Structure to design on (334 residues):
């Protein structure tokens, strides 16, 4: 919960949808009237503040866009199962905004503008910005109001929750000692490669030509030509600009045939031809790091942040529960 509210407004803006304020250019027919009536149906009232179906639909749209960016398609039936949780999120958000108003928390327009400008800077031009806003159901004015609301909520949480969280060195050390598996750095190798790209479904003639090309490169390497020079000239991987250097990686970071070959070698060795779904590779290992436990000082800050977040989430949950218990909340059938 707290992680969602305390993200930067740029991240929130990309995920949250709002009302699209568009005046119809044609007469409203019966079907659009029905849709408008449905959108304006109340789903909840929070201390006399109504929440409407259109509010929930915007949250549903946000979820759909978020999951689409993760490559996960969501069907209507699956979305329907999220409605209850999304309505509770809306209720909690409304409660926090109401509480912030009671506390007198305000955000000045210059802060809102600065946050909007940060979001705007991610687009090449005004047209791309407007297209992105429209895809999320926004025009600029309601978008900035969303930013303002999120900044207000973040300020409230920082003031009432975050500033009261304290993580001691003793707690950090105890977490490190009690969770050794979390701080085990897996074995790594540093390697370079040359890739001759060929699709898995390519014609046999094309595969044969690619294989012949990389076998010829292997012969040249065996005769003493520099691996990096050949990678820069012939590799089909973007790493060619660095002589094929891929840096350090773990077994899980590469496809299995590539990892199996790389981790079977010692520094200075060059593999035979390795076949993956990307094509044919030659791999040269330059360095190895065995598995090891990360030093306490190396992970201390990360542990502190994690423990802080855990405490903040619990305190925020308790805080919302308190204000929810004192609120008049009505929920209606959806």
């Amino acid at each position: 919960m707290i992680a969602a509210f305390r993200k930067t407004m740029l991240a929130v803006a990309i995920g949250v949808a709002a009302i699209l304020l568009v005046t119809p250019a044609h007469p409203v027919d019966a079907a659009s009237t029905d849709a408008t009536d449905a959108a304006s149906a109340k789903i909840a009232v929070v201390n006399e503040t109504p929440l409407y179906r259109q509010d929930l639909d915007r949250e549903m749209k946000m979820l759909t866009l978020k999951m689409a960016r993760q490559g996960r398609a969501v069907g209507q039936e699956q979305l329907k199962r999220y409605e209850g949780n999304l309505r509770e999120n809306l209720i909690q958000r409304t409660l926090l905004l109401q509480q912030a108003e009671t506390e007198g928390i305000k955000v000045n327009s210059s802060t809102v503008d600065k946050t909007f400008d940060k979001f705007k800077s991610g687009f090449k031009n005004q047209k791309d910005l407007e297209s992105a806003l429209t895809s999320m159901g926004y025009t600029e004015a309601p978008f900035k109001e969303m930013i303002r609301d999120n900044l207000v909520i973040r300020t409230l949480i920082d003031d009432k929750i975050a500033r009261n969280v304290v993580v001691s060195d003793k707690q950090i050390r105890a977490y490190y000692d009690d969770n050794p598996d979390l701080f085990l750095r897996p074995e790594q190798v540093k390697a370079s490669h040359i890739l001759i790209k060929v699709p898995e479904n390519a014609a046999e003639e094309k595969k044969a030509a690619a294989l012949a090309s990389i076998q010829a490169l292997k012969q040249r390497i065996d005769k003493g030509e520099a691996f990096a020079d050949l990678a820069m000239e012939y590799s089909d991987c973007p790493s060619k600009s660095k002589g094929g250097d891929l840096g350090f990686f773990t077994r899980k970071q590469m496809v299995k045939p590539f990892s199996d070959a790389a981790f079977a070698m010692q520094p200075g060795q060059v593999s035979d031809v390795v076949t993956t779904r990307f094509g044919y590779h030659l791999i040269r290992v330059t360095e190895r790091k065995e598995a090891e436990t990360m030093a306490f000082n190396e992970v201390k800050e990360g542990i502190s942040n994690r423990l802080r977040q855990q405490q903040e989430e619990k305190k925020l949950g308790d805080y919302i529960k308190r204000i929810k218990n004192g609120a008049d909340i009505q929920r209606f059938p959806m």
Remarks:
- The CA atoms of residues 195 and 237 lie 6 Å apart.
